[in-house]
Write a structure and sequence with these properties.
Elements lengths: L9 H24 L4 H21 L2 H18 L10 H21 L6 H11 L1
Helix pairs in contact: 1-2, 1-4, 2-3, 3-4, 3-5, 4-5
Length: 127
């Protein structure tokens, strides 16, 4: 097995992650207009899932864990275990901002921001 040179993937990672975040913002706005739209709920779930996977692959575990919390929230909605509450929209938007800030740090400093407390806070706020 060979070691992957993840630096070679950094540009693609950042580009796709930013596109996913843009799509998340747009879908979240749509979801607030149609809070029971299963297509939008699934798309938001899928985007958080993709972001989580990308971050784990690149070794950015804290950013991935924040994505995982949001993914789990939307998985529960998608699976019918809970309903979307538009009052949580600002919490999700804040999580997206934290992910964006981490991407900026990854781009400029080659390291993610320490969002450990944000992960705990997001888990607490979405429960």
């Amino acid at each position: 097995m060979t070691d992957l040179d993840l630096v070679a993937y950094k540009g693609l990672y950042l580009e796709t992650a930013r596109q996913h975040l843009s799509d998340l913002k747009n879908n979240l706005l749509q979801l607030n207009q149609s809070p029971t739209d299963q297509k939008i709920i699934y798309e938001i779930f899928r985007l958080f899932h993709s972001l989580k996977s990308q971050n784990y692959f690149m070794g950015f575990e804290k950013t991935a864990n924040l994505c995982k919390v949001a993914e789990n929230y939307f998985r529960e909605i998608k699976d019918g275990a809970r309903n979307y509450n538009s009052n949580f929209s600002h919490i999700i938007q804040d999580a997206i901002l934290k992910i964006e800030n981490s991407l900026t740090s990854i781009e400029k400093e080659n390291k993610e921001t320490d969002i450990s407390s944000d992960i705990i806070s997001l888990e607490s706020n979405l429960s």
